[in-house]
Design a protein that fits this description.
The complex is a heterodimer of chains A (307) and B (242). With 307 residues, chain A is of the alpha/beta class. Chain A contains 11 helices and 13 strands. Chain A has helices at residues 48-55, 73-78, 97-105, 114-120, 136-148, 166-180, 193-199, 217-224, 238-242, 264-274, 288-306; strands spanning 10-19, 22-32, 37-41, 63-68, 82-85, 154-158, 185-190, 202-207, 210-216, 227-232, 247-253, 256-261, 279-285. In chain A, strands 5-6-7-3-8-9 form a 6-stranded mixed β-sheet, with helices on both faces. In chain A, strand 6, helix 6 and strand 7 (185-190) form a beta-alpha-beta unit. Chain B is mainly α. Chain B has one domain (3-239). Helices cover 79% and strands 2% of the residues of chain B. In chain B, a hairpin with a 2-residue loop joins strand 1 and strand 2 (47-48). Chain B starts with a helix and ends in a 5-residue tail after the last helix. The chains are: A alpha/beta (307), B mainly alpha (242). Chain A binds chain B through residues 56-59, 77-80, 82-84, 86, 88-95, 99, 102-104, 106-109, 143, 146, 150, and chain B through 1, 3-6, 9, 12-13, 16-17, 76, 79-81, 83-84, 86-91, 239-241.
């Protein structure tokens, strides 16, 4: 039995979506309280966009329930509770930036002032330019303005900074924070851990269509902020290496040893202390992709084992 | 919400799309000026040739003008704009209304231009005949307007050009917009269930036909309803990434 969810915030339960044989989203549960800024973090193909599409009513789930501020996704969109910036898409032509934002503003019951939104999105200097004469970064900012002007309770942003340079990213997040500071709920998808860490109250980590972790940024960072130590080392068995502090996993191919570490500092000190013969030492941060594989390897095997 | 502002911007976009605007209006007008100009004093089936040809060009030109709206929809889908609109409170009814109004705007300009050109070649009708012809054309365009929207949500922009150009030329040809091609037999029975036939007939009511018989109203109504049902269904389903 589904419990009736609260009328505020987002409640997603048992969400499943497949496209043919591709299981895009497998049994996802998400709860977001009003006013939270939450990052949906994961590598490409994690199911972030599909989840967001279902949240916005663009894709119908195979199974599961979604409540957006007490409404179905379609009703939430219809009543103007949701503003969103999709991952893909450009702008229609034949209108100026200001006209386009005004056109979208007119569709919402209580839109923000168009001039204010143009300033907030950093595009007031190109307000009178035609939309087909913009750079990729400018298009992205206009798309952001289109999402903002709704003044919706919930702002959904699917990989919003993809086409932006470093400066553009910074300005973007500043604007997003200003919006969130007004008590709005924000959900954004990203595959940059740094972005999720810097701008979200909470991170929901997705991989292979599942939520693999959900918590404050620090907690997620300790899980995915893995480091590996590589070294050349003779005559030491894997079992002994696995006993080193801070080491979670050992791989060895002949003399080449790879240690996956939760605390690479402690591991490295202990390694050099006990095995002075270790050479060619290399420490590096595991990419997000590798960290996800690490995190997701176990649950997947378990799932398949029980079937 | 009335979505007046949204509709106003849609119309503004139509006017500003210069290439779309010019090409849609130019071809029927040029064809009329060239062909009717060359046979200014001829008669066909007992009617002055410029009148006959003006009526045919109105049918073909407005058919092209309203279905061309579909090509713009296909383009909006391709750039992801349709999906962006789906996550706004814009209702399907308001969306359709804005598209229909832009299409009728283009059709109206086509009609006015051709009437002016016709008049300059000596076409002269009573006010009642002008009105009757115009009224029937506007009704006869309903199924084509919906067809344009339907195709816009089904086809990609690459397919729209040939589909619209070829389709409207074929329909206009069969339905007699360029001259009485099909005048009897089995083929006429087939052509008579096409809405384009009645669009051409609408024009030719002014040339002495006296409006549509019941059959014409039924054919146009049946196509309108069937296409509308299809278009609404396709529009509802069309939320995926293109």
């Amino acid at each position: 039995m589904e419990t009736v969810t609260s009328t505020s915030g987002i409640a997603v339960s048992g969400l499943v979506k497949s496209f043919g044989s591709v299981h895009a989203v497998r049994d996802v549960d998400i709860v977001i309280e009003p006013g939270e800024t939450v990052a949906l973090l994961g590598p490409n193909g994690a199911g972030k966009s599909t989840t967001i599409d279902m949240l916005l009513g663009l894709t119908r789930p195979d199974q599961g329930t979604i409540s957006v501020f007490g409404h179905s996704p379609a009703d939430a969109v219809k009543s103007g509770i949701v503003g969103a910036m999709l991952q893909t898409g450009t702008l229609i032509r034949e209108l100026s930036v200001r006209e386009l934002v005004s056109m979208v503003a007119s569709l919402y019951p209580h839109p923000l002032d168009v001039g204010e939104v143009l300033r907030l999105a950093g595009i007031d200097d190109i307000a009178n330019r035609r939309t087909n004469k913009l750079s990729g970064g400018q298009v992205q900012r206009v798309r952001f303005a289109i999402a903002l002007v709704s003044d919706a309770e919930l702002l959904v942003l699917d990989e919003p900074t993809v086409a932006l340079d470093v400066e553009g990213r910074h300005e973007f997040w500043t604007a997003m924070r200003a919006f969130a500071a007004r008590g709005k709920t924000v959900l954004f998808a990203t595959h940059y851990l740094e972005e999720a860490d810097a701008y979200a109250d909470r991170i929901i980590l997705m991989a292979k269509g599942r939520v693999v972790a959900d918590g404050p940024a620090t907690e997620i960072k300790s899980k995915v902020g893995l480091h590996t130590i590589r070294a050349t080392l003779e005559n030491v068995d894997s079992e002994s290496l696995a006993l080193l502090p801070g080491v979670s996993k050992v791989d060895r191919h002949g003399e080449a040893v790879t240690l996956s570490c939760t605390d690479s500092d402690a591991a490295l000190r202990a390694l050099l202390n006990r095995y002075a013969a270790a050479r060619d030492i290399e420490v590096r941060g595991a990419g997000l992709e590798e960290a996800f594989l690490e995190l997701t390897a176990e649950p997947t095997t378990q799932m398949e084992g029980t079937r | 919400m009335t979505a007046v502002t949204y509709t106003r911007f849609e119309l503004l976009r139509t006017f500003r799309n210069r290439r779309f605007f010019i090409f849609t209006l130019a071809f029927p007008l040029i064809l009329f000026l060239v062909v009717a100009g060359a046979h200014r004093h001829a008669t066909l089936d007992g009617i002055s040739f410029p009148l006959y040809y003006m009526a045919g060009m109105v049918a073909w030109g407005t058919m092209g003008a309203v279905t061309a709206g579909g090509a713009r929809i296909a383009l909006e889908r391709e750039v992801g704009w349709s999906r962006q609109l789906r996550i706004t409170p814009l209702s399907p009814a308001a969306y359709f209304r804005a598209k229909v109004l832009s299409s009728y705007l283009m059709a109206s300009i086509t009609i006015v231009l051709l009437y002016l050109a016709g008049t300059s070649f000596g076409v002269s009708l009573t006010a009642a005949h002008w009105l009757e012809m115009t009224g029937l054309v506007l009704v006869g365009l309903i199924p084509f307007t919906i067809l344009g929207i339907l195709m816009g949500h089904l086809l990609n922009p690459d397919a729209m050009g040939p589909a619209l150009g070829g389709g409207s030329a074929l329909l206009a040809l069969l339905s007699g917009a360029w001259g009485p091609l099909v005048t009897g037999g089995f083929l006429l029975d087939v052509v008579k269930v096409l809405p384009s036939y009645w669009l051409v007939q609408a024009d030719q009511s002014a040339t002495g036909g006296g409006g549509w018989p019941l059959e014409g109203w039924l054919v146009v109504a049946a196509w309108s309803v069937a296409l509308l049902v299809l278009a609404v269904r396709v529009y509802r389903r069309d939320t995926g990434r293109v």
